[in-house]
């Protein structure tokens, strides 16, 4: 019997040891799981637990402040408790400073649950506004995604709290009663955290639901506006491209019917009209209230007309030049400004100025002695300055003249014949070209005389008979033809013994004669033959 009792005691001890070993293993496993959950619930990593801890600390500080204030109020100052009151006041001051560090603890979860007010919803009235609307939609969705992430994080935190509480409940059944108090306190703390976070979860879910409906409605309206504006933009682009190709077709058509000089101006007119039409299309398409634009442009135009008269007049001058057709690119013109004359070819006519390339002409030979410069002429000068166009209306010829003087005793009839022959020889092609152009201009202007044959005029001057020759010359090669004709006239006159060019001279007559005899007979006076004293000396 004793042996049997001993065996039973031994078996009971072994069983108790085995059970105790299993319990310890189970406790260790639970503690490991709790350690993993503690990492998720770490106040440094988990924003919700951090907010709760801050809120709890803030509440603790408030309770301590109230307790200290109550103690200070109840403690009457005496000589024996002065030091105690000083300690209490110091602690109160420290706690109040700590309290000032907490700013939003009345609503600790505001940062994680707050829904930012939706800014002014953009109105899509042009293609550029589409970009802003897209960014606005991204901001709304980003805010919604942030709130949803916060909600997911909150749910994970509550789930971790529930798991930890369950583990602590299991641990409570396995631990000794001496350790139950700490576990019970932890369970109570977790329960408090869970209740508060579930309240925050309820608020956050409601906020997300309201925000989601509102944001979806806004996004739907914006996407509808974007779609309409995209279609409108496509239509406007089609219209602009159509206008561009129409202008291109007009340019090709003009190229077949206009010469190179007029084609340049015509292309500029087409380009300007193209830009203006496209600008009007864009304004009418995307301007909400055209009345505001008209009023604004009216005030701006009045201000510009007063403050920038020259610029405004230059623009008006450009308009007159383009519409009137008085000047074209390639024309040779002559402009006199500030006691200086400029002659050259038009390179460009912009909205503010005429660009002129100064050529070597009679003007540069006789006056400026400079050529090859680029001259910029403001368009407003057409209203205040006379501008001579050498090649207006397709004309390529102008009258040029050469003057020289022969002595009174020269054969002026023969001299006239010589200059006429030389001029006719060299100006013949220009005469034919000029007649064709004048016949064309006759349709536009009242031209009664079209004779372009060389003209010679004989005038009596104090020092002889002045012969003035006028002939047709190409407007761009006047100086070249003048040089050629001048040399040939000198050459032909040099072959004539009875023609003498007059130039400043001094004539000394020792016979008492005044030279009349030589003028009519070309023979020396009999007295001069006897004395042989007739001499002419140049003053130079």
From TrEMBL:
The chain crosses the membrane at residues 234-254, 275-299, 311-329. Pfam families: MS_channel_1st (PF21088), MS_channel_2nd (PF00924). Residues 521-540 are annotated as: Disordered. Residues 78-105, 137-200 form a coiled coil. Gene3D superfamilies: 2.30.30.60. One of its GO terms (molecular function) is mechanosensitive monoatomic ion channel activity. Keywords: Coiled coil, Membrane, Signal, Transmembrane, Transmembrane helix. InterPro entries: LSM_dom_sf (IPR010920), MS_channel_1st (IPR049142), MscS_beta-dom_sf (IPR023408), MscS_channel_2nd (IPR006685). GO terms for cellular component: membrane. Residues 1-18 form the signal peptide. Residues 310-392 form the Mechanosensitive ion channel MscS domain. Residues 268-309 form the Mechanosensitive ion channel transmembrane helices 2/3 domain. It is found in: Membrane. It comes from the Bacteria. This is Mechanosensitive ion channel family protein.
């Amino acid at each position: 019997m004793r042996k049997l009792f001993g065996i039973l005691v031994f078996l009971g001890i072994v069983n108790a040891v085995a059970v105790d070993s299993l319990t310890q293993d189970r406790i260790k496993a639970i503690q490991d799981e709790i350690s993993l959950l503690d990492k998720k619930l770490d106040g440094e990593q988990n924003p919700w637990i951090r907010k709760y801890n801050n809120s709890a600390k803030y509440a603790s500080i408030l309770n301590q402040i109230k307790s200290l204030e109550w103690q200070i109020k109840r403690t009457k100052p005496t000589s024996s408790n002065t030091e105690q009151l000083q300690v209490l006041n110091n602690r109160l001051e420290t706690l109040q400073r700590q309290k000032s560090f907490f700013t939003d603890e009345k609503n600790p979860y505001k940062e994680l649950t707050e829904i930012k007010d939706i800014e002014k919803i953009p109105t899509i009235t042009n293609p550029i506004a589409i970009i802003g609307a897209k960014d606005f939609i991204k901001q709304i969705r980003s805010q919604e995604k942030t709130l949803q992430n916060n909600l997911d994080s909150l749910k994970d935190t509550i789930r971790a709290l529930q798991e930890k509480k369950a583990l602590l409940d299991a641990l409570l059944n396995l631990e000794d009663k001496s350790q139950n108090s700490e576990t019970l306190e932890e369970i109570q703390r977790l329960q408090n955290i869970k209740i508060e976070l579930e309240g925050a979860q309820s608020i956050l879910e409601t906020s997300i639901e309201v925000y989601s409906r509102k944001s979806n409605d806004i996004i739907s309206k914006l996407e509808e506006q974007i779609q309409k504006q995209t279609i409108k933009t496509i239509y406007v682009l089609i219209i602009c491209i159509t206008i561009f190709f129409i202008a291109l077709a007009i340019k090709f058509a003009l190229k077949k019917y206009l010469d190179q000089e007029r084609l340049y101006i015509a292309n500029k007119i087409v380009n300007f009209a193209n830009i203006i039409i496209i600008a009007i299309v864009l304004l009418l398409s995307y301007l909400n209230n055209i009345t505001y634009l008209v009023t604004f442009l009216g005030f701006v135009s009045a201000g510009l007309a007063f403050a920038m008269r020259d610029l405004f007049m230059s623009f008006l001058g450009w308009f007159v030049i383009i519409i009137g057709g008085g000047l074209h690119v390639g024309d040779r013109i002559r402009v006199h400004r500030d006691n200086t004359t400029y002659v050259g070819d038009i390179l460009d006519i912009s909205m503010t100025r005429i660009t002129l390339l100064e050529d070597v002409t009679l003007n540069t030979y006789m006056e400026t002695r400079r050529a090859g410069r680029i001259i910029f002429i403001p368009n407003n000068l057409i209203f205040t300055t006379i501008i001579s166009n050498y090649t207006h209306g397709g004309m390529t010829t102008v009258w040029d003249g050469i003057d020289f003087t022969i002595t009174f005793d020269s054969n002026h009839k023969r001299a006239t014949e010589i200059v006429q022959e030389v001029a006719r020889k060299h100006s013949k092609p220009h005469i034919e070209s000029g007649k064709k152009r004048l016949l064309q201009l006759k349709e536009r202007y009242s031209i009664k005389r079209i004779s372009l044959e060389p003209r010679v005029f004989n005038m009596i001057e104090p020092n002889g008979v002045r012969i003035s020759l006028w002939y047709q010359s190409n407007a761009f090669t006047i100086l070249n033809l003048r040089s050629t004709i001048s040399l040939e006239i000198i050459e032909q006159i040099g072959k004539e013994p009875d023609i003498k060019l007059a130039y400043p001279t001094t004539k000394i007559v020792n016979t008492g004669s005044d030279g009349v005899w030589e003028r009519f007979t070309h023979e020396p006076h009999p007295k001069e033959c006897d004395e042989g004293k007739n001499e002419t000396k140049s003053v130079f």
